[in-house]
Amino acid sequence: MHLFDILAVLLSLAAVFSWINHRFIRLPTTIGLMLIALLLSLGLLIAPLDSEWHTLLKQLLEDVDFEDTVLHGMLGFLLFAGALHVNLHDLARHKWVIATLASASVVGATLLIALGGWLLFGLLGLDVPFIYCLLFGALISPTDPIAVLGILKKANAPESLNTKITGESLFNDGVAVVLFLTLLGIATGEHEASLFGALGMLGYEVIGGALLGILSGGLVLLMLSRVDDYQVEILLTLALATGGYALAEQLHLSAPIAIVVAGLMIGNHGRRCFMSDKTRRHLDDFWELVDEILNAVLFVLIGLEVLVLELSGGPLLAGALAIPLVLAARALSVGLPIRMMRRRSSDFAPGTVTLLTWAGLRGGISIALALSLPDGETRDILLSVTYVVVVFSILVQGLTLGPLVRIIGRRADRELAEVTADADSSALNHH
C-alpha cells in the first residue's frame, strides 16, 4: 500500500471515529477513538468470514511500521507540542520530585516488574528469559506522555499534581527508551552486561540529549529574535521539532529529552520574549492541531493493532495478571521516594501517591518498544502482555482518573476543614 493510501485510510478513520465519538459517545477523544477502533477490530476478528475491511486494515497495519511511526515519526512532534505549554517555573519548583520520578522510579519499577514478571511467566509455563523480563519492565514502566497529556486536560487535577505528572511523563520516556535499548543490546549480544557500561551509556544519552536541546533551542531562539513573521517563526519551530529529533538520533543521544528541552525553551522564552500576540496565537493553534491530529491517528492505530497480534490464552492471561503487578510496581516505585521526600517538604497533598499511581498511563510508546524486540515466541508473548496492559491503562485508568481526582480532592478539602476547625477550637480554649 502506498504512503498516500495509508494516510488517506488512517485520517479518514480518525475523522469518522472522532465524529462518532463527539456525536454519540462523548468520551475523551483519545479514549473514544481507541475504543471505537478496538471494537471494530474485535468485530472483524469475530466475524465468521473474511471481509474486505478486514483484509484492507490488516494490509494497512502490515505496511505501517508501528515502531518506526511512533518512535521516529510522531513522538518528536507530540513531545514538542506538550512541552510548549509547560511552565518552566512550575517545573523548576518540583524539579527534585520530577527528576526522581523520571529516573529512579523508572529503574525501580523496571526491576520490580522484571522480578514479578519472571515469577508470573514461570507459573503460567511461559518461557521468558530474565533479560526479557527486564526488557518488559523497561518498556512498560514509563508513563506515556501522549496518553497522559491528552487525558490530564480533561481530569481537572490540582496544578501541583498536574505539573508533577506532566513533567515526569515528558522526561521519563527518554530515560526508559535509553534503558530499554541498553538492555536490548545486552540481550542480543551487542553490548557487554556491565552495570557501569550501562550507566555510562544512560548518562551519555540523557545528558547529551539535554545539551543538544539547549543548543538547538538556543539557536532557534536567536533566529526568532531577528524576525517578525508568524509563518517563518512557525516553520522554525517545525524544523526544530523534526531536525533536532533526527540530529539527536544520528548522534546516538536521547532524542525525546532533546526535544522536550527545546520545546520548554521555545514555550517559555520564545513565546514570551520574541513573539508578537499574533504569532503566539498562530503558533498555539498550529501545534494544538498537530497534537490533536497525530493523537487521533495514533490511538486509532493502537485500537486496530489487535488485528495483527498473535493472541492466545496463555499470554492473554499473563497480560491480565500483569495489570496488578504493573500497578503495584508503580505504587512502590513512586510511593517510597515520595515518603522520603515528605519528611523534608509539605508539597504533597493527601492522595498524591494514589493519583500518581493511577495516572501512570501506558500507551503507544510501550507497544512500539515491544514491537522492536527480536522476532520469536518471546516477542509475541511480551507484545500480547504489553497490549493488554496498555488497553486497560487507557480505557480503565483513563476513564476513572477524572472521578478519582474529584474524590481525593473532596477528601483533602474535608481533612483541611477538620484541621482548620481543630486549630480554631484550640485557639478558643487557650483564650
UniProtKB/TrEMBL annotation:
A Gene Ontology BP annotation from the UniProt entry: regulation of intracellular pH
The Cation/H+ exchanger transmembrane domain, residue ranges: 14-406
One term under GO cellular component: plasma membrane
Keywords: Antiport, Cell membrane, Ion transport, Membrane, Sodium, Sodium transport, Transmembrane, Transmembrane helix, Transport
InterPro entries hit by this protein: Cation/H_exchanger_CPA1 (IPR018422), Cation/H_exchanger_TM (IPR006153)
Gene3D superfamilies attached to this UniProt entry: 6.10.140.1330
Main location: membrane
GO molecular function terms noted in the UniProt entry: potassium:proton antiporter activity; sodium:proton antiporter activity
UniProt keyword Cell membrane, yes or no: yes
Transmembrane segments: 6-24, 31-49, 69-86, 98-123, 129-149, 170-189, 201-223, 230-247, 253-269, 289-309, 315-336, 348-369, 381-405
The organism's place on the tree of life at top rank: Bacteria
Places the protein is found: Cell membrane
Membrane-topology descriptor: Multi-pass membrane protein
Family: Belongs to the monovalent cation:proton antiporter 1 (CPA1) transporter (TC 2.A.36) family.
PANTHER family: NA(+)_H(+) ANTIPORTER NHAS2, SODIUM/HYDROGEN EXCHANGER
Protein name: Sodium:proton antiporter
The organism of origin for this protein: Allochromatium humboldtianum
